[in-house]
Amino acid sequence: MAESYTASPEYDRSRPDPFARERASAPVVPQVDPLSGAAIADSASPSTQQVNPLTGESLMNPDVDPAADHATVGEINRKFDEWLQVRQLHEPQWYINAANFRGNFNVSWNALEGRLINVPSVQPQRSRRQINRIFAKIRARRAKLLKNRPTWIVVPATSDTKDKMDARATGKVLDYLWRKLKLEAKFRDAIIWAESCARGYWWFGWNPDALGRVVQQIPSDPVPSVPGMPPAAPQSPQKQISDGVVGEVTVEVSSPFEVLVGNPASSGLSTQDEIIRAKVRTLDYVRARFGKEVSSEGSGSTFQYEHQISNLNAIQGPFSGSPAGVSDSRRDYKGNPNTIVVKEYFMRPNDEFPKGKYCVVAGNTLLKEQDELPFGFHDMENPFPCVEFVDVATAGQYWGTTVLEQLIDIQREYNGIRQAISTNLKLHIHPKVFVAKQHQLPEGAWTPDAGEIIEYNARPGIKDPFIIPAPNVAADAWRILDLIRTEFDDITQIYPAAEGSTQGTESGFHANLLQEASDAVHAPDIRGHEMAIEDAAYKIRRIVKQGYQVPRLISIASGMHTPDVFEFAGEDIDEYADIIVQAGSALPLLKGARIQATLDLYAKGVLGDPVDPEVRRRLLNVLELGGMDDIYEYSRIDEEMISVENSQAEDATELAQPRFFEDHQKHWIGHVNVLKSPAVMNWDEPARMGLLAHAILHAKYINHAAAYQMSIEANLEGLIPPPMLMGMPLPPGMAPGQPGGTPAGPAGAPGGAGGPPSPESSFREAPDRTPASGTASA
After folding, report:
1. Are the C-beta atoms of 176 and 555 separated by less than 8 Å?
2. pLDDT tens digits, residue range 431-452?
3. pLDDT tens-digit profile of 585-606?
């Protein structure tokens, strides 16, 4: 079962055993949809009580009203027929768009036959040029939309350390699913559908039979006891990584031919009240997923767009039938019809159905009905289990236009002028010849072959054959061609510089400006795709929250391009965290501009000390791999530890001693900022003093003498050894002779009693190291 729609399950369910199906001793349970609990009938044991293995609840419904089912089926079929008639008005244009993209320009829609037909062939001596400029422009626009992957970040709802770590793990899981589910390729497929048919879709589901890597605890063999010796301590169980049946999210690409909307005047799914997904399914699919028998009703040509698009070719003509040797998926191996149109009905939440409604109908059979939308999406702005990618947003119209559609008339005019010019050129090369019948020239004597001898019977008084030269092509024709090429650029907003051409540009800087201007025009369309990806991320996270009941191993390449493997379960997800796709993250970036920006950051010291070899190494990695994740990941290492230590201090947990390899300047600033905040006044005294002592220990690595003076002022004697014992000079204003020195100068003055050490000279300079101790000195 490739997909499964369900209501939102409870989160306190017991986790299933991912290896139950592989163990011989595993109990046999009825086949059910593991998230929704939809029973799959088992003809071998009809009397078995069907239960949901995750909840233990019975799946039998004794209160089934056949009359109510019949009314529901009739209502859904009525809406299906009405909505289909509205959408069918737009389908001919979609077929024409697809034909023009592949170069079949001389086609038109035959409403009687319900298919595209070719324009009658012209005479062979006339030129029929097919210069496909649409192909080049649409490919260039597609490259802009797909060059960069939209980048999402997960923002925790609170500053709690666990929320931050859960948000970070959730972001990594989304990156893992982007790769595992091949969402990059599916994003491309959805965009391709949108180019011809105005919209492309992702539909979300759950595959309960998917395998995943899980950690299995294997008990160790008992240690034999030795007489006369104390019993040996039991060995800890070993961990083994295996593949278990844990289920996985599914994402299916869909075309507009599968979607029907209740309000064609609404411009998006987020404002639709009802939608239907209608798809031709095999009878085996219906039996496996819903456990019910239905009769094949066929599908005619209404939903056979796959066959019509696949048969669009230049040899047989558009939609002229399946090529020889291609099997028809609408029939089984005996030639009998084996398909049926499955209609999935979705209703937005309303007063009657607070969580929406979901029904599945095939023919006159109600396969499924539940008063809740799949996966508990009812609380989202787009409550349906799909997202849409729109080619061109249109106000007040769901089935809008496309960029490709706007180019068809210009393409036909361009080809018409090219054909006329080509025909004129043929006339110049092989012009028309006037020959009298009395000349008795052999048939076919006038050929372009050189050196041919033509004999004819000459008659006195008859004028010799003569040639009528073709007129020259009018200069306006060439100007019109230039105008049409400009119109291609203006309508698509894809200029030659954006396609890699330097024509009309004065310099590389000028070309970059033209490309950036072109990107700005496409930014709203790209932003629309980014928002769709953001909506998809929320839906995928919700399904993961419900379906990842068994912890599994997640492996990704971290920002520092090193393997990052961790165990993850649905309970590690905080649904209050926001998922944000950065605006402009999917815009194409110029490699040269990116390299220059990175070098500027390096020269200004933003990436670290330019003379530091480690900083230079990271710079080379960024320039080679073309990303800044390495730098960001590196800079967050100390920040994460600072956040963890601050949270531990608030809980009065004893903090670990600072380590010599930490960035002590960052730790000092991070801890002192918390101590300066008003929130620290609500802490217990031991918690405040513990964090203060930890901050002073970090300060010791920056300036030992200043840290010692701070420990004296904070009444933390003994925390920092006196500088004299370490072979260091006393801080300014302190005299030798007493433990720790005697403060000098007025109270509150810099260096005096109660006054802080000078931060300009103490905490912003690189620490000095003595050869003996290796500790920082003033």
Report:
1. yes
2. 888 888 877 777 777 777 766 6
3. 655 554 555 666 677 777 877 7
For residues 642 and 618, is the Cβ–Cβ distance under 8 A? no
What band does 163 get if pLDDT is binned at 50, 70 and 90?
confident
Element (H, E) at 534: helix 508-547
Both tokens of 298, joined, read: 């066929």
**Above 60 in pLDDT, residue 35?**
no
Nearest Cα to Cα of residue 740 among 697, 766, 707, 764: 707
- pLDDT by residue (tens digit) across 671-724? 998 898 888 888 888 888 999 999 999 998 888 888 888 988 888 888 888 876
Q: How far apart are CA 677 and CA 698, in angstroms?
A: 19
| DSSP-based three-state secondary structure for 277 | strand
Mean pLDDT rounded to a whole number for the chain? 74
- According to the model, what pLDDT value does residue 384 have? 95
Q: Give the span between the Cα atoms of 778 and 730, in whole angstroms.
A: 9
| Lowest mean pLDDT segment, chosen from 30-34, 526-530, 563-567, 576-580 | 30-34
Give the span between the Cα atoms of 311 and 578, in whole angstroms. 45
Please classify residue 347 by burial: count the beta carbons closer than 10 Å to its beta carbon, then call 0-12 exposed, 13-18 middle and 19+ buried: buried
Residue 59 is predicted with a pLDDT of 43
Task: Outline where 294-373 has alpha helix (H).
Answer: 305-310
**Cα–Cα distances in angstroms (integers) from residue 290 to residues 245, 317, 417, in the given order:** 21, 40, 58
Strands (E) located in 119-188: 152-155
> Residue 356: its pLDDT value, please?
94
Query: What SS3 class is residue 620?
Result: helix
pLDDT tens by residue, 492-518: 877 776 666 655 555 555 566 666 666
Q: Is 593 helix (H, G, I), strand (E, B) or coil?
A: helix
DSSP, residue by residue, 711-730: HHHTT-TTSS--GGGGT-PP
In contact, 764 and 699? CB cutoff 8 Å:
no
What pLDDT, in 10s, does the model give residues 5-30? 544 443 344 556 655 555 544 444 44
Position 663, amino acid: D
Considering Cα of 568, then 570, then 571, then 573, what sign does the dihedral take? Answer: positive
Is pTM beyond 0.90 here? no
DSSP E strand stretches across 258-301: 259-261, 274-282
Residue 371 clears pLDDT 60, i.e. is over it: yes
Please, which residues bridge with residue 768 across strands? 777
Q: Where are the beta strands (DSSP E) in 36-88?
A: none
DSSP 30-79: --B-TTT--B---TT-TTSPPB-TTT--B---S---HHHHHHHHHHHHHH
What percent of the chain is predicted at pLDDT more than 70?
A: 67
CA 35 to chain centre: 24
How far, in Å, CA of 63 to CA of 645, rounded? 58
Which residue, 6, 62, 63, 10, is CA-closest to 32?
6
Q: Give the pairing of strands 466-468 and 432-434.
A: antiparallel
What are the percentages of helix, strand and coil residues in the chain, rounded to 5? 40, 15, 45
- Among 672, 666, 739, smallest CA distance to 701 is for 666
pLDDT, tens digit, for every residue of 727-744?
665 555 554 433 333 333
In terms of C-beta density within 10 A (0-12 exposed, 13-18 middle, 19 or more buried), how is residue 534 classed?
Answer: middle
Q: How far apart are CA 406 and CA 390, in angstroms?
A: 15
Q: Do the Cβ atoms of 602 and 621 come closer than 8 Å?
A: no
Q: Mind giving me the DSSP string for 361-414?
A: EETTEEEEEESS-GGGGGGSSS-SSEEEEESS--TT-SS---HHHHHHHHHHHH
Question: What would the 3-class secondary structure string for 88-127 be?
Answer: HCCHHHHHHHHHHHCCCCCEEEECCCCEEEECCCCCCCCC
Position 372 scores a pLDDT of: 92
Please give the Cα distance from 397 to 264 (Å, whole number).
6
